[in-house]
Amino acid sequence: MAHTIKDVARLAGVGIATVSRVINGSPNVLPRTRERVLAAIEELGYRPNQAARQLVTARTNTIGVVLPFLTRPFFVEVLRGIEAEVAQANYQLIIFNVESVEQRDRYFGHLPFLGRLDGLIVLSLPLGAAELDRLSKVDLPVVLIDTEAHNLPAVVIDNETAAQMAVEHLIEHGHQRIGYICGPLYPELGISVNRERLIGYEAALRTHNIEICQDYIRASGDGREVGRASTKALLNLATPPTAIFAASDEQAFGAMDEIQARGMQVGQDIAVVGFDDLEMSSYLQLTTVHQPMERMGRSGARILLDRLSNPDQPAPRRTVIPVELCVRQSSVPKS
Amino acid sequence: MAHTIKDVARLAGVGIATVSRVINGSPNVLPRTRERVLAAIEELGYRPNQAARQLVTARTNTIGVVLPFLTRPFFVEVLRGIEAEVAQANYQLIIFNVESVEQRDRYFGHLPFLGRLDGLIVLSLPLGAAELDRLSKVDLPVVLIDTEAHNLPAVVIDNETAAQMAVEHLIEHGHQRIGYICGPLYPELGISVNRERLIGYEAALRTHNIEICQDYIRASGDGREVGRASTKALLNLATPPTAIFAASDEQAFGAMDEIQARGMQVGQDIAVVGFDDLEMSSYLQLTTVHQPMERMGRSGARILLDRLSNPDQPAPRRTVIPVELCVRQSSVPKS
DNA sequence: TTTGAGTGTGGAAACGTTTCCAGAGTATAG
DNA sequence: CTATACTCTGGAAACGTTTCCACACTCAAA
Fold it and tell me: Which of B48, B77, B116 sits opposite A50 (nearest CB)?
């Protein structure tokens, strides 16, 4: 059986309160007393029981993160940032992976993490009125990343402006017929980036008095293969676009696959711009909007941690992380 | 303030012990009593305090996973399998990401998770004598995935045999000069797959009386770019290999990059075989050893969970997950 | 010397559960 | 009608901490 604080107290010849003070770094302990206690702790290999500690302090030193599709690079990179920041602050990180509507509803319906968490990060998942309502009732500090909701602190990028920037880059390089490929505009889990980026795409065209052609907009599914299929459809049009803006790098990879499979040159014959800047994108020379994913994770985690150590101070309502366009050969071929 | 079991008991007009019995599904409760209690729980929105529960039961309902490089696809896929299985069993999952030797030593030196976990999964990280010693002292159930250690249950694949199979596939298709590219044989964290796969590579050659040429073996770093560099070195040899076996798909992608950059055809001019079977590998038509990553995660998690619910029954010492070779055009061009 | 503040310490209450134990009630067998 | 067994229930102990409170002591000021 593991030792308790009483064993330590007895061995050190002090009271349990003093041991507790030593453990928690209270200043009011005589140096020689502290040393005796530390020696006893060392000798017994004593470890404070976390459950007992939590029970009395009502803190768990744990934060949770709910995220969709643990497997997709974007979410993993953000998670990595969160993990780094959380570990550094000596908190634990519990993850809840959501891959279906039922799972999401299970988590937000039952809130199974309720007693176990000091705070929660929700990544990319939009929260509906029901979820917000339930969350607000239990007063658990929440921070959102890559999604927004009334009144909750959020770390986001400006998808509209970023997309507009990407499309304007294409326009500046002489393109007038620009396709947009993305995943479903209204996906099951309600993730809205594809919609927001569509708005930016349309804004760029409108600004330059280019007519918006519905045939150039293909919103179907996620992933590389679907991106390739969408591109195939675009290139089979009577008047195909000369440039393609993809709402994700994975889709853009698919576009490049299709272009190359047709014996055409990416950048030369058809320009491609993506969104995310995955590790592979620079290898493939894909022009893309760089999202600082790890930084978004760190930023969100930090906001939550700050709020935990400083409960009265309000968290910043909305933190916009700047993005930038990485211009590579897929849109501007080397001369 | 949140309600306690006492509030529920008072409202339902029963004792706290009865409420506890209802919560924990004890059979000896009169149906109408149970209903009164459930109604009270519902009305108050009562949730049992986890810390109090843990304190008295000495169980946390949480398992931890220590894994390196949260960002690499292989580890993420395995983690996903673990998460799925753990969530299904109504356990929480705490993750500890290790990206440096210091971090690993911090985790295994202090075992900061000690009081918070019912069990631990170690993914891919080899454990030294010191770590094993410490772990055995604290009697925390441990399961290893993709790594092995004296006496601890482990879920692994047979890297040697798998590599041998991959190389023999190349030999059968007429290749005699076969290169092997991989990450460092003795990396910082001690991960040993590259070494094991090298042994399989050598065994295949030896079996077919092919001389092992040290120039054909390039162990440098991880990732796609390094794979490309290794391939460049191989192809610049006076007598370059006609086939390349890469210890990871990421490395194989780099090899394909370099081959294509030289205007040669993958599969036609140089054959490439990888290891992992990432999502992208089928798109790129890469022949590769398929590792059922998610399944490995699930399998390891299940072994741990079984052991937790059944402490006396010994866990299977070594579970070997079968792998298979996925033959695609990178080694056998379509005719 | 007395007062007062300040420092170091220990005992005990409190946190919210689970579970042991005992008791009340009911049904069954002798 | 009593003895026995079984079911349902409630009180209270126990889990291992933190923290409140009280006490003893030291030292400086009055």
Answer: B116
Residue with tokens 């590259």: B194
Q: Give the mean pLDDT of A140-150.
A: 93
pLDDT at B49 over 80: yes
The pLDDT of residue B216 is 97
- Chain A residues touching B93 at Cβ < 8 A: 94-95
Does any CB of chain A come closer than 8 Å to the CB of residue B225?
A: yes
> Looking at the predicted structure, is the pLDDT value of residue A246 above 90?
yes
User: B317: which DSSP letter?
Assistant: S
B83 touches chain A (CB under 8 A): yes
Which of A:261-320 have CB within 8 Å of B? 279-280, 283
Contact flag A87-B76 (C-beta cutoff 8 Å): no
**Nearest CA among A167, A165, A128 for reference residue A148:** A128
Bridge partners (DSSP) listed for residue B276? B290
Q: Residue B150's pLDDT is what?
A: 82
Of B71, B112, B137, the CB nearest to A77: B71
Query: Which residue in the set B45, B77, B93 is minimally distant from A95, CB to CB?
Result: B93
Nucleotide minimizing C1' to CA distance for residue B8: C16
A262-304 pLDDT, tens digit each: 999 999 999 999 999 998 898 789 999 999 999 999 999 999 9
Cβ–Cβ of A97/B83 closer than 8 Å?
A: yes
Determine the distance from the C-alpha atom of residue B43 to the mean position of all C-alpha atoms in its chain, rounded to a whole number.
Answer: 44
3-state secondary structure of A5: helix
Sign of the CA dihedral with B125 first, then B130, B132, and B137 last:
negative
Strand-strand pairing, B287-290 and B324-326: antiparallel
Q: What are chain A's domains?
A: 5-48 (1.10.260.40), 60-156+293-321 (3.40.50.2300), 159-290 (3.40.50.2300)
Pairwise CA distance, residues B70 & B145, whole Å: 15
Please give the biggest Cα pair distance in chain A: 90
User: Which of B179, B192, B291 is closest to B227 using CA atoms?
Assistant: B179
